[in-house]
């Protein structure tokens, strides 16, 4: 068992939490839940699975995770952030158990490979695999960057290594929940863009700290490429690039639905809201915790 604490941020995650914790329970010494006052059975389930539970009002993911670092009295060498809809492959669990505590003292961060599932299908194309994310760091040497959107974990000093095995983003909730979630995310992204245009975000930049190179490149392309293109037209280019140039069509019907919704629903929706705010001269309000809790559709599942 690795000298590791795993932190999970939750809000109404009873459908995902059991498989999430089961995938790494034999690897981590400590499992901590930071819950945003769930109204389902998340808290009771977490406690029954051996996790410690703390409740804290949600402001955004970065604040919530950094609050955990400052308030749960970390007593392990390493800490890891895991989302409730994520789970370890058995190969990754074994790799963490075997390697983590043997890493050089110069190493303060570990990058992992994430595979994303949508409607039960592993998306291997369209630029979705592998996603390289810094998820583990030595206690006292890392944090979440303070960003409203697309926040990354960063290490403040030392080296970073990459493990070779995957973890999975494999949500058990319905497509309705996915749509509600991305409507919520679109409000956050509009506010984030408004803050950047006002030069008022005052946030740490991932480009200036240690995380995965993939994350740095994606951040740069999004901020200096995608958002420099005309509204609405850029959503069209996004679909063409992901579906055709990055071979998203090879992921079948699920890949087509995912890429279409990402481009012509989520990305287009962000542009529509930006247009509305500019036309009316209004600022997007800050978002609370995601409230969408639609149940899994009978016969469906794993929206991603």
Explain the layout of strands and helices.
Layout: E1 2-10, H1 17-22, E2 28-35, H2 42-48, E3 52-55, H3 61-71, E4 78-83, E5 86-88, H4 90-99, E6 107-118, E7 121-122, E8 131-138, E9 142-144, E10 153-155, E11 159-169, H5 175-197, H6 213-224, H7 233-245, H8 252-280
Helix pairs in contact: 5-8, 7-8
Structural overview:
The chain is an alpha/beta fold. It folds into two domains: 2-169, Spore Coat Polysaccharide Biosynthesis Protein SpsA, Chain A (Alpha-Beta Complex), CATH 3.90.550; 175-280, no CATH class. It has helices at residues 17-22, 42-48, 61-71, 90-99, 175-197, 213-224, 233-245, 252-280, and strands at 2-10, 28-35, 52-55, 78-83, 86-88, 107-118, 121-122, 131-138, 142-144, 153-155, 159-169. Helix 5 packs across helix 8 (252-280) and helix 7 runs antiparallel to helix 8. The longest helix has 29 residues, at 252-280.
Features:
23% strand, globular, Spore Coat Polysaccharide Biosynthesis Protein SpsA, Chain A, nine-stranded mixed sheet, two-stranded antiparallel ribbon, alpha/beta
- End-to-end gap: 29 Å
State the CATH class of the largest domain: Alpha Beta
- Mean pLDDT, all residues: 90
In total, the number of domains comes to: 2
Total number of helices: 8
The H-level CATH homologous superfamily of the largest domain, spelled out, is Spore Coat Polysaccharide Biosynthesis Protein SpsA, Chain A
Q: What is the overall shape? A: globular
> How would you sum up the major sheet?
9 strands, mixed
Rg from C-alpha positions? Answer: 19 Å
* Overall helicity: 25-40%
Low-confidence stretches: 200-204, 292-301
Beta-strand proportion: 15-25%
CATH architecture of the largest domain: Alpha-Beta Complex
CATH topology of the largest domain: Spore Coat Polysaccharide Biosynthesis Protein SpsA, Chain A
Structural class call reads: alpha/beta
């Amino acid at each position: 068992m690795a000298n590791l604490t795993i932190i999970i941020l939750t809000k109404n995650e009873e459908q995902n939490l059991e498989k999430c914790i089961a995938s790494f329970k034999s690897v981590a010494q400590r499992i901590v839940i930071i819950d945003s006052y769930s109204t389902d059975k998340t808290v009771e389930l977490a406690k029954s699975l051996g996790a410690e539970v703390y409740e804290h009002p949600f402001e955004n993911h970065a604040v919530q995770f950094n609050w955990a670092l400052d308030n749960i009295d970390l007593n392990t060498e390493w800490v890891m952030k895991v989302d409730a809809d994520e789970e370890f492959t058995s190969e990754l669990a074994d790799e963490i158990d075997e390697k983590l505590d043997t890493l050089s003292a110069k190493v303060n961060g570990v990058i992992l490979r994430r595979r994303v599932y949508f409607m039960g299908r592993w998306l291997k194309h369209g630029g979705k695999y592998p996603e390289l994310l810094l998820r583990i760091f030595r206690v006292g040497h890392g944090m979440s960057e303070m960003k409203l959107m697309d926040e990354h974990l960063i290490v403040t000093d030392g080296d970073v290594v990459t493990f070779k095995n995957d973890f999975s983003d494999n949500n058990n909730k319905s497509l309705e929940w996915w749509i509600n979630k991305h409507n919520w995310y679109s409000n956050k992204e509009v506010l984030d863009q408004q803050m950047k245009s006002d030069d008022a975000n005052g946030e740490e930049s991932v480009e200036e700290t240690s995380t995965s190179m993939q994350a740095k490149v994606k951040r740069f392309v999004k901020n200096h490429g995608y958002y420099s293109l005309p509204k609405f037209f850029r959503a069209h280019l996004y679909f063409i690039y992901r579906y055709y140039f990055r071979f998203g069509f090879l992921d079948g019907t699920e890949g087509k639905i995912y890429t279409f919704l990402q481009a012509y629903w989520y990305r287009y929706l962000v542009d529509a809201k930006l247009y509305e705010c500019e036309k009316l001269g209004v600022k997007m309000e800050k978002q609370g915790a995601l409230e969408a809790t639609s149940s899994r559709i009978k016969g469906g599942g794993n929206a991603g």
